[in-house]
Structure formats: structure tokens, C-alpha cells
Amino acid sequence: MKVAIIGYGNIGKAVEQAVLAAPDMVLSGVYHHNDNLSRIKADVAILCVPTREVPEYAQLCIKKGLVTVDSFDIHSRIADVRKDLGVLDVENKTVSVIAAGWDPGSDSVIRTLLQAIAPQGITYTNFGPGRSMGHSVAAKSIEGVKDALSMTIPLGTGVHRRMVYIELEQGADLKRIERTLLKDDYFKNDETHIIVVPSVAALNNVAHGVNLVRSGVSGTTHNQRFEFNMTINNPALTGQVMVACARAAFRMKEQGRFGAFTMIELAPIDLLPGDPEQIIKELV
Amino acid sequence: MKVAIIGYGNIGKAVEQAVLAAPDMVLSGVYHHNDNLSRIKADVAILCVPTREVPEYAQLCIKKGLVTVDSFDIHSRIADVRKDLGVLDVENKTVSVIAAGWDPGSDSVIRTLLQAIAPQGITYTNFGPGRSMGHSVAAKSIEGVKDALSMTIPLGTGVHRRMVYIELEQGADLKRIERTLLKDDYFKNDETHIIVVPSVAALNNVAHGVNLVRSGVSGTTHNQRFEFNMTINNPALTGQVMVACARAAFRMKEQGRFGAFTMIELAPIDLLPGDPEQIIKELV
Fold it and tell me: Which of B17, B218, B277 sits opposite A237 (nearest CB)?
């Protein structure tokens, strides 16, 4: 399976490492964000461009008949992107796997499985401690903020605290920055603490985590309790998930099952290389 | 979807509760273990007979064109049962889901997902505390043992202690029972404690649990850590898993994807009732 990587930031670099470690893949090329894509020679394009640009790049690649994988992560738009790309995939006889990261992504698989085996109940997904890109960018965009890091801290039952570390420009008005930040849509509904530091770069760290909890009912039996925890390097996990999904997408294309799919629509066995019978012997 | 239940022990009763709670299923009948199955009118047969009898009952049902679901749990024979039933399923244009419980079953899905997202590493599955049926039956079969309960206690890294509670027959030779039990294949490799109690029935409890741990490598990044825990009512969870798999199997049959499959070969979304787009909006 020949794999092209489009976009070469944190995620693109992590995907490169996972492709090179995969026994069934060859890296055919790394394309930068603004490169001309007409020269791509690959079976699969793994899209590591900024999330808002994913649909545009996916369409370009699908029209060339490539399998695409992305980690599009705007939860509210996933169903629409799936529908739009799916039409193109069927027209071009190919497959896209979208929203293939850890959340959305592998966490979605856990949530779906738990919903199936204890259908009535509540699942709480608690994120962190770890950096939120969206919140960090929002904080950094405020006038007078030189750099910002917003850490997501899980308080349980899906409630999160925001710890915002900011580095100030010379002569910045801290009181005004605080007022602006606390009114911002990203922060106004959460407990938010602002801490001025001499260097945000000195704090940066790609560690992240999840604590996903469900208490539910199987049949008529209550008090079925489930918990999934992980502490991970964020881009490394995202990159590896995308590579596993590239494998599944390629198999689905070979089977003529064209369309755009989220991870909960893939059979987990297709994420793995190797002989299915051997995998069943080892993992079932 | 019309569902028949074959076998009406702990699991059969739990399946009945889950079928009655399912919005998309009708219970067409409950058949006892030795009933004549020729009169079954259903789309799906959920097999709740003892595990060793599963292949025989599955074959009977498949030959009638029924979808079958079982929780066959002899790990070493799953691949063979899958192969044998798969041939029959294709001949009869139907679908079987085998080994559909929690281990094998939903735990297998978690193991497969974690293997895919951190391909290098070790997964430990720690069971219990909870009753092991196989060990309990082995202990009960020893001469002089009136009743027995073998509890599986997790010691971590996949190592387990056996706590065996036995109720003696009048005049039984405890020393001989202890020697026999500790030499038995089920017990000889594990730390085993034998405790004589006045009533095993007074101790029985269908609670069980799992602690599944993986430390692995994503790409070239080590120290990716994952943990899945559950504490559950054992037959209730098994019954609910079988019902969810019945739904997935029925969909695969409608799509013409005939054969025998383990849970890691099913798309998790197919375990759930309802509109796929709505499920994606809620769970991805």
C-alpha cells in the first residue's frame, strides 16, 4: 500500500513515523500544505492539513481516485462532511475514513461499544490534562497576548477547568486581557484560571489523556460500570490511528465498499495488518 | 427482527430481558435445550445452550437459513468453529456471529482497537473478582465435593489467584480432595486456596469484572498507556452483547455479506438500533 502524507506539521510527522513502522506500507511522498497535488502517486492520501481545510483537500484526492484518511475534528460537522465526501467517493469508486483521531476516533469506538452493551445510561468523556489547540489559539489571538497555552483539566462528569498560561507583550493591559478572555465563547461557560508566565514555550508538552466512564443497564440489570483511561502523546496517537484507518479504508476499496465512513463504521480487525485467522487466534 | 432464544438458563433469561428491551426486536419464542427445533419461526436464533453444544445447534439453525449468535467461549477453538460455520453460512446465505460475550467478545474489540493504535506492546487482561464456571465445575466434580465455587482473583499482568469455596459431602476426605484439586489441570499452574464453607449457595453471586491494560508504542513513541475496567453482572452483559450482535448479523445478512464472524469483524455502529446518521452525530 503506497501512502502519501499531505501536510507536515506535528500530525504529518507522526503519521510518517507510523507509516515507516507499518509492515504493509510504503511511504510514497510527503506533500506540503500548498504543494501542487497533481503529481501524487499513491493508493492512500493521509490528510494532515488544518482541520478546516480537510474537506477541500479530501475532494481533490478523491477526484484522483485516492483513498483518503483525515482527522477532521469539528464534531458538529462530521455527519455533513461524511455525506458530502461519501457522494464523491462513490462516484470515484474509492473510500474515505473521516474523523480518524482519538476523539473523534478511537474514543468514538469505545463510546459506541459501551452504548451497545449497556444501552441505557450516561457516558461521560473527561479530557486531559492536556493542551487544547482551539482554546490556546483563541487566547493567543487576544491583543497583548504574545503566546498562550490553554490546558484542559478534567473535573469529572464531562466538566472541565481551563488553565490558561499567557505570555504578555511589552506594556500589555492584563486586566483587559482577562476580561476579554473570560467573555470569549471558548471560555465563558467553564471555570477558567489565567496565569501569567515568562515563557509559554517552556511549558509546552503534547501529553494528553482521556477518562471515559459509563454506568448503564444491560437488559434490565442496572449498575453495569465501565471505564476507559488513557495517557498518551497526542500527535503520536493521532498519527497511528490515521495509519490504521488507511489500512481499513484500502481493504474496503478492494472489496468495492465505496463511500465515506467514520471509525465506528469500520470492523476493528481491518485496522490491523496480517492474516485475519491469526489475529482472531491472538486477540479474540 | 424476530428473535428465538435457544436454551433458557442464566444466559437465556438475560437474553430474553435484552430482547424485550430492544426497540427493534420481537421475541418469537424461547426453546429449551432439548426441544424439537423444526418449528422455529424467526429471523435470528440466539444460542444459549452449553458452550460445547453450540456448534451442533448453530449448524441446525444455519441449515434452516437462520442468523445465529452464540457466546462460544473456548478461545482455542474459536477460529475452527468460525471456519466450519462460515462454510455453512455461505451455502445457506446467512450470517453467524460467534464468541459474542464479553471475553471473548467486547474485550476482544478493545484488545484489537488498542493493538491497532499502539501496535507494539503487551496487553494484559485481568479477570475478576468473579466466578469461573469452568473451575467451579472442575472442583465440584471431585468425589466428596457437594458444591463448589471457584472465584478468579486478578493479581495483575494476567496472573490470577483461585479462591475455591467447597461444601463437603458427609464423611468426605478433605486432604484427598485438596490433593486432587491442586493437581487438576484447571488449578495446577495458579496460586490456589481451598476454603471449606457450610453453604456454597450462600456465596453465589454473578458479579464479575475486567481490568485490561496496555502499554504500547504509536509510531516511534513509547509510553502510550491504556486501561479498560468494568464491573458487571455477568449473564446480563453476555445477554446484551448477544442481542447487539444479533442486530449486526441481521444487517450483514440483508447486505448479502454471508459467513461466520467474530465481534472484531463487525462495525460497532451495526450493534446499535436507529438511524446511522443520528448515531454518528451522538457518538462520534
Answer: B218
CB A72 within 8 A of CB A85: no
Q: Which residue has the cell 464472524?
A: B261
Average pLDDT over chain B, rounded to whole? 97
Report the pLDDT averaged over residues A119-125: 98
Find residue A87's DSSP bridge partners. none
| DSSP string for A38-100 | GG---SEEEE-S-GGGHHHHHHHHHHTT-EEEE----GGGHHHHHHHHHHHHHHTT-EEE-S-
How close does chain B come to A199, measured CA to CA in Å?
26
Predicted pLDDT at B38: 82
Question: 3-class SS at B36?
Answer: coil
Q: In the numeric block, which cell numbers belong to residue A19? A: 507509516
A121 sits in which H/E element: strand A120-127
Q: Which residues of B touch A116 (CB under 8 A)?
A: 240-241, 244, 268, 271-272
Is the Cβ pair A264, B262 closer than 8 Å?
no
In angstroms, the CA A276 to CA B197 distance is: 47
Answer yes or no: is pLDDT of A33 > 80. no
For B80, the enclosing helix (H) or strand (E) is helix B78-91
Taking CB atoms and an 8 Å cutoff, what residues of chain A touch B262?
269, 280, 284
> How many Cβ atoms sit within 10 Å of the Cβ of residue B230?
23
For CA atoms A76, A184, A55, A239, the dihedral sign is: negative
Output the DSSP codes for B204-235: ---EEEEEEEEEEEETTEEEEEEEEEEEEEHH
- Contact present, B30 and B53 (Cβ < 8 Å): no
User: Exposure pattern of B146-157 as b/e (b: 16+ CB <10 Å)?
Assistant: ebbbbbbbbeee
* pLDDT above 90 (res B179): yes
Q: H/E element holding B283?
A: helix B276-283
Instruction: Work out the mean pLDDT of chain A and round it to a whole number.
Output: 97
Is pLDDT of B138 > 90?
yes
Which A residues, 242 through 261, put their C-beta within 8 Å of a C-beta on chain B? 243-244
Judge whether residue B258 has pLDDT over 90: yes
pLDDT score, position B117? 98
**C-alpha to C-alpha distances, B261 to A116, A246, B95, nearest whole angstrom:** 17, 22, 8
H or E element, residue A228: strand A221-233
Question: How many beta carbons lie within 10 A of that of residue B199, not counting itself?
Answer: 11
Query: Smallest Cα–Cα separation from A241: which of A274, A271, A264, A284?
Result: A271
CA B63 to centroid of chain Cα atoms = 24
Beta bridge partners of A164: A150, A194
Percentage of residues in chain B having pLDDT higher than 70: 100
Q: Which residue of B has its CA nearest to A247?
A: B116
- Closest to A169 in 3D by CA, of A204, A196, A132, A202: A196
Return all residues near A157 (Cβ < 8 A) that are at least 6 apart: A124, A126
How would you class B198 by CB atoms within 10 Å of its CB: exposed for 0-12, middle for 13-18, buried for 19 or more? exposed
pLDDT at A37: 87
